[in-house]
Design goal:
767 residues; five-stranded antiparallel β-sheet; 24 helices; 10 strands; SH3 type barrels; three-stranded antiparallel β-sheet
């Protein structure tokens, strides 16, 4: 096989050269002075034939050797059998064979392209031929004249348009829509020098009537320069690197100039590569070398694009992640993951596009370019549709400023659902755009929707959306009604403040549960076992948690009967405190000392509510028997009126002071009872203020609030005679110093000026 691989190229090369010489060349235009045809391609082919003459002689010598000829015949038979087998294989012309042929062409072309000996031989032949020298001189001066004239005309046109261009760039416009006309004018001013350059080049090319290959190279040069200028002008219009006041894209000056530098880089390399490929082909470069040259230029382009992607990895990743806290958690996670790997996907895509172009798959590269362009247009259109959808939703469902000022809670709820609507609109447009992009790449995504599976998925999605929307609507209506009752103009009652939040919570749980079961059913989950399991669990809980069930049932009836509510002061199970929180199972009380008591409803037997609807301070005031009861009642009534007139206590006293009358004749006082009706929970503060005023008023009027009295009884006999109790009056002594007072009192045996009982003795005679 080695001999075959050495001999086959030697056999095919002369045949290819002969075919090249035998094939008719395109008609050449007659030169104005010489009328000779362009002989550069024929000379190149002749040089190639002369270089291979020695190899042909070697092949002929090898064929004269019988042994070598026999081995060659056997190898040719093996090659023929392999060729027949490949021809019978339907995948013979697949990717592997195409890659093999391309590799052979590239190797052969690269060897020709970088062959120093062949290049030197070609240069010697061109220099030795007078005809070739005249051809090259004609080519060089005509091409130089065309390019110099075109460049001068472009520079003059640009200089003439400098003032209008500066005037346009100096415009200051706030809105992006008002900047577009000036950008259009600026782009026209950029394109006029390019048009002048192209016109000058084409006119001079027609006037000079150069040779064919000169005309081809000149056209390639002009076309490459025009294409590069058009790309640069388009980039300058979009990015506006030196006219930030006209820029419509959200970029800073640094980013705009950076991107513009890359636009110039791609345009320049593309134009230079196109010119080099076309010029080399016109100068007689071999087909393999031309293929190798174009593939090398494409590789440079692909590598530059990959470098550009990697340089902007972090900036594009930050843009893809978006601001912190925006969107839903799942969407933020997806965006973060895509931002982390987007550059890898981009590099793989660029490598795949280059591989398709390099392998020369029929229609492959054009197909990839078309699909990529359509996908890019779909992405741009989807972005515009998303922006338009968001603005329409804000305009249709947005709240006016006066409504937001009057109902801030409604504004918060509306903002929450605006976010949901925005996400829904974004998701719908994104899905449609993804399906359209798949269609652009040849995947029949919309056709799949027409299948049974597609209709099932669409139907389930619509049903789920309807269920979720109905559940959200029901919840919002119920929640709004409850909040309206709680935040209305009239102060809601204690039972409403307690039951309505519990009802709201219960409705939320029921709505989420029912809608969740329906959604599970729509996506194909059998909810029968779930319902059965829930029933079994509920039955087990009912049997195993009787106390819990008792707590719940008792609590429900206590709340329904409005026995107490949050904020009430109650006494239950020997504990008195303020109700801080009520659940469906427990009560949480905080006593006067700040201690928190949690009581289950099952332990509640008797409840004393001290702040139900209103409160009353009941007082019992005792005065001495010598006091006039009517005078005391009058004084108390005056105190009650003063209390109602007080700005601090008057608003909480609901009714005038109520005196019930003389309630008791106690041992040392007569007791007068009354009460003050107050707002719930204010009886203690009002009572303390009332007692303070009573003490002060009685002191002013000299009304005695007596100390407790005790009567000493000495007894009596059956005849009614009581034993005598002698009383001795002692003269009051002046006050003594503190250190002598105890001794004096001890000596006297009594307090000065006090009446002391005296025990009878014999001197008294027992009377």
């Amino acid at each position: 096989m080695k001999l075959l691989f050495r001999l086959v190229p030697k056999l095919l090369a002369p045949a290819a050269a002969a075919l090249l010489l035998a094939s008719p060349l395109p008609a050449q235009p007659q030169d104005a002075h010489e009328g000779a045809r362009d002989t550069a391609p024929q000379q190149a082919a002749g040089a190639a034939l002369r270089a291979q003459a020695a190899e042909i002689d070697d092949l002929a010598a090898a064929l004269r050797d019988p042994e070598a000829r026999a081995r060659l015949l056997r190898q040719l038979e093996l090659l023929r059998g392999a060729t027949a087998q490949v021809r019978d294989d339907p995948a013979a012309d697949g990717l592997q064979s195409r890659a093999g042929r391309l590799a052979a062409d590239l190797v052969a072309g690269t060897s020709v392209l970088f062959s120093v000996s062949q290049a030197a031989a070609w240069l010697r032949d061109q220099a030795a031929s007078p005809e070739a020298r005249r051809t090259w001189l004609d080519f060089l001066w005509k091409l130089a004249l065309i390019l110099a004239a075109a460049i001068l005309i472009r520079a003059a046109t640009r200089r003439l348009l400098a003032a209008p261009r500066a005037a346009v760039e100096g415009q200051q416009r706030e809105s992006a829509w008002t900047r577009l006309p000036f950008l259009a004018v600026r782009m026209i001013l950029d394109l006029l020098p390019v048009a002048a350059f192209a016109a000058a080049g084409y006119v001079l090319l027609a006037l000079l009537e150069p040779r064919e290959f000169t005309r081809i190279i000149a056209l390639a040069t002009i076309n490459a320069a025009v294409a590069a200028s058009l790309v640069i002008a388009a980039g300058r219009t979009v990015l506006a690197p030196r006219a930030a006041n006209l820029r419509v894209v959200g970029l800073g000056d640094e980013s705009a100039n950076y991107l513009m530098a890359w636009v110039r880089r791609f345009a320049t390399i593309g134009a230079a590569g196109y010119f080099l490929a076309e010029a080399s082909l016109s100068l007689g470069l071999a087909a393999g070398a031309h293929i190798a040259l174009t593939r090398i230029i494409g590789l440079v382009f692909a590598l530059l694009a990959m470098i550009f992607v990697l340089q902007n990895r972090e900036a594009v990743g930050a843009w893809l992640r978006g601001p912190e806290g925006s969107g839903f958690a799942g969407l933020r996670l997806l965006r973060r993951r895509f931002a982390d790997i987007w550059h890898v996907l981009a590099v793989i895509y660029l490598g795949a596009v280059y591989a398709v172009w390099m392998l020369g798959i029929p229609g492959g590269f054009a197909y990839v370019l078309q699909a990529s362009a359509i996908s890019l247009a779909i992405v741009i259109a989807a972005k515009l549709l998303i922006i338009a959808a968001h603005r329409i939703l804000d305009h249709v469902f947005g709240l006016r400023a006066d409504i937001i000022a009057r109902y801030p809670a409604l504004a918060a709820r509306a903002d929450r659902y605006f976010a949901i609507l925005h996400v829904a609109a974004t998701a719908i447009v994104t899905v449609l755009a993804a399906l359209a992009a798949l269609e652009a790449w040849g995947i029949e995504a919309f056709a799949w929707i027409a299948t049974d599976a597609g209709r099932g998925v669409i139907g389930a999605a619509v049903s789920i959306a309807v269920v979720v929307a109905a559940a959200a609507l029901f919840w919002e209506v119920a929640s709004a009604m409850i909040e309206r009752q709680l935040a209305g103009d009239r102060e809601p009652g204690a039972r409403a403040r307690t039951l309505l939040p519990l009802l709201r919570r219960t409705l939320l749980i029921v709505t989420v549960t029912v809608s969740g079961f329906v959604v599970l059913s729509e996506i194909g989950v059998d909810i029968g076992p779930l319902l059965a399991g829930a029933g079994v669990v509920g039955l087990a809980v009912g049997f195993g948690a009787q106390t819990l069930v008792k707590d719940v049932i008792t609590g429900f009836f206590i709340l329904a009967e409005d026995q107490f509510a949050a904020g009430d002061v109650i006494s239950v199970s020997g504990i008195t405190g303020t109700v801080e929180d009520i659940t469906i199972r427990t009560i949480r009380l905080r006593d006067l000392g700040g201690n928190v008591h949690v009581l289950p409803f099952s332990s509640v037997s008797t409840v004393t509510n001290m702040t139900k609807d209103y409160s009353q301070h009941v007082f019992d005031i005792g005065v001495a028997y010598r006091e006039d009861v009517d005078e005391v009642i009058g004084a108390l009534s005056v105190i009650g009126e003063e209390l109602r007139a007080d700005p601090a206590f008057g608003p909480v006293v609901r009714e005038p002071l109520e005196i019930m009358g003389l309630d008791a004749l106690a041992d040392s006082a007569v007791v007068i009872r009354g009460r003050i009706t107050t707002d719930p929970g204010m009886q203690w503060s009002v009572g303390r203020e009332f007692n303070r005023r009573v003490k002060r008023r009685f002191d002013e009027l000299g009304i005695e609030i007596p100390f407790p009295h005790q009567t000493v009884y000495f007894g009596e006999d059956k005849s009614g005679r009581a034993p005598a109790a002698s009383v001795r009056l002692e003269e009051a002594r002046p006050p003594q110093p503190a250190d002598q007072a105890p001794a004096a009192r001890s000596a006297a045996g009594t307090t000065p000026g006090a009446l002391q009982p005296r025990t009878p003795d014999a001197a008294d005679g027992g009377d």
